[in-house]
Write a structure and sequence with these properties.
By secondary structure, this protein is α/β, with parallel strands linked by helices. It has 9 helices and 13 strands. The protein has 3 domains: 7-77, Nucleic acid-binding proteins (OB fold (Dihydrolipoamide Acetyltransferase, E2P)), CATH 2.40.50.140; 99-251, 3-Layer(aba) Sandwich (Rossmann fold), CATH 3.40.50; 258-316, Ribonucleotide Reductase Protein R1, domain 1 (Orthogonal Bundle). The protein binds guanosine-5'-diphosphate, magnesium ion and zinc ion.
């Protein structure tokens, strides 16, 4: 067989967008290449999706007759991923992990201090999901301009106390936006939270026009469970990216089993070894160290209450 002479070059970049078989890859210098992927890279390998947004890839460009075609030939090793078990193709024998975003550095949970009112139980759910996926978390307490700063700090005190970083912002006055910007710098982050808390306004403060670009930032309490997830990365600055993940709400509590819930409450996890029963649920057993520490005030009663509710809910929930 004879082919016309081809010129090939290779490059390395990050996948920022996937669209019906094509992937947009951005190079270090900011230029973009549209690539197809080598067939083997789009097939499901054992337990993980082969190619996802956020992946660093090696691609080749094949030039023929003045036309360049990009082809992803290798996926570089991943860092953290935001993933879920695929509910459609998972079987009892094998769980397929659907990677939604690869190399995710930070999940930012945005809440308003008021209007809408702060809902700690929702934050607890988000945190459980993030802990289960071992994702670093940042809590953003927005709309600080409508309550006193003492009140704002009181709302989030439990979370600061157990070691979660909280940044207090106002998209209205600009307070704390520099701090938020610094926290996002050099990272691939996902910003999430329910509608009306100020995500779009914050994005606009971070980079004018970004809210319009991003449009449908994920709303964890959004609509359908099976909305198609087509995430995309948006550039905040030369070194920082924000992922837009419509449909993220399906992962509000990501594949967590009732029995493992205590591991995802930061302040509870270190105590479970001191309960009398090794399979203590921390709900009703005698000799429960967790309950003891709630009684002495070392563990927040509100957090424990949320643990109980979620634990009961998870035990009722059907497994995949
Ligand atoms: N007072 C006050 N209002 C805010 C703040 N951030 C957002 N808003 C308002 O809250 C509403 C919802 O904001 P938006 O950014 O659309 O929230 P999103 O649904 O999370 O994207 C809008 O009317 C904003 O003007 C803030 O920090 N302070
Ligand atoms: Mg919005
Ligand atoms: Zn216990």
């Amino acid at each position: 067989m004879s082919h016309p002479p081809l010129t090939r070059t290779t490059g390395t970049g990050q996948v920022i967008k996937a669209h019906s078989g094509f992937f947009t890859v951005i190079n270090r210098d900011g230029s973009q290449v549209i690539c197809r992927a080598a067939g083997r890279l789009t097939k499901l390998k054992h337990t993980q999706d082969a190619l996802a947004i956020g992946d660093f890839v090696r691609y080749e460009l094949v030039y023929s007759e003045g036309y360049a075609e990009g082809r992803i030939i290798e996926v570089l090793p991943r860092g953290r991923v935001l993933a879920r078990k695929d509910p459609i193709i998972a079987t009892k024998e094998q769980e397929i992990q659907q990677v939604i975003i690869a190399n995710l550095d930070l999940v930012v949970f945005v809440f308003a201090c008021a209007e809408p009112a702060f809902t700690p139980r929702l934050l607890d759910r988000y945190l459980v999901g993030a802990e289960a996926q071992q994702l670093p978390v940042l809590i953003c307490a927005n709309k600080t301009d409508i309550i006193s700063s003492e009140e704002a700090r009181r709302l989030f005190r439990d979370y600061e106390h157990i070691g979660y970083p909280v940044i207090y912002t106002s998209a209205a006055t600009g307070e704390g936006v520099d701090t938020l910007q610094a926290a996002l710098h050099g990272k691939l982050s996902v910003l999430t939270g329910k509608s009306g808390v100020g995500k779009s306004s914050l994005l606009n403060r971070l980079k004018p026009g970004l809210d319009a670009e991003v449009g449908a930032l994920s709303e964890l309490l959004g609509k359908g469970r099976h909305t198609t997830v087509v995430p995309q990365l948006f550039q905040l600055d030369s070194d920082s990216w924000i992922a837009d993940t419509p449909g993220l709400r399906a992962y509000a509590v990501w594949d967590v089993e009732a029995e493992e819930l205590d591991a995802y409450y930061r302040e509870i996890a270190p105590l479970v070894g001191r309960c009398d029963f090794s399979d203590c649920t921390h709900l009703h057993e005698p000799g429960c160290e967790v309950k003891r520490q709630v009684e002495t005030g070392h563990i927040s009663a509100a957090r424990y209450d949320s643990y109980r509710r979620l634990r009961k809910e998870l035990s009722r929930q059907r497994k995949w």
